[in-house]
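Sample pair:
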Amino acid sequence: MAVLHFESDYLEGAHPLILERLTQTNFEKTPGYGLDEYSDAARTKIRSACGCPEAGVWFLEGGTQTNATVIDGLLRTFEGVVAAQTGHINVHEAGAIEAAGHKVLAIPQHNGKITAEDLTKYLDLFNNDSSRDHEVIPGMVYISHPTEYGTLYTSDELTSLSRICRSHKLPLYLDGARLGYGLAADNTGITLEKIAQLCDVFYIGGTKVGALFGEAVVVTKPELIPHFFTIIKQHGALAAKGRILGIQFDTLFSNNLYFKISRNAIETAMIIRNGLQKKGYTFYLDSPTNQQFIIIEDTKLKQLESTVGFSTWERYDEAHTVIRLATSWATKKEDVEELLKQF
């Protein structure tokens, strides 16, 4: 049988409506660098969805590129970015942040999240250190929603982090590579509007949520990163054919498409979770999103490798491994049902 692919959430191409619009507009001639009418329309729709009419909105091509550009734009040369030990920029971006000259200042994580208590403790220790002028200064805070472990910040948790950051005059930056799946999860109190209220900069992921590629950076107060257009260009991140990004986000934010298709990933992930629980499998943690982490015997792992594509996450003990199964906006329920048969 063909391998069932659940390694990640960007394995498919793009939503058919995006491909249709790209084809329809293929021979149009428009200004470059995101200065076209489609990018302008997408910005207007995103500002409206965020309830932030004054926000600056820019389109970049990928998540690592976006993180590196935004973080370098926010920080001065002697500053670093505070993140969870398991934060994406700390473990899965090949040192992209450090390559730009900024240290990732890792603090403890709790199921992928940082807490207000740990952040306060870290900042207090730094500010009370008589040698702090010899150290990398914390210049901003990075979180992701969902986290690397598919977990979500609650409204109270995000509010507390925001309050601490603002009291210390530190920008709070939210990595939203999988933001659609966080917003579509059950029983979440986090909305785009709340994120825009509590975070200084965030991005809305398209690569993992229906687009061919692309991320929409939202700077709630554009003066926070002066000359961001030029900074994007300096990082080689300014797409000449910017309208390709604009058209995609204009489509995703028409008729609530972004939110509708995100829900499919949650529904199919819950089928996997419920089905594996019935079969007696144990989960590494409780993820309400499209990433599910299962503790599996190594002997069973070897059996699965020929029929199921998954991500090996970490060792659990001498005989067990944690694997990740990820669904997406395009995951088919028949593939999920076939997946469950393999366990």
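The mean pLDDT is 97.
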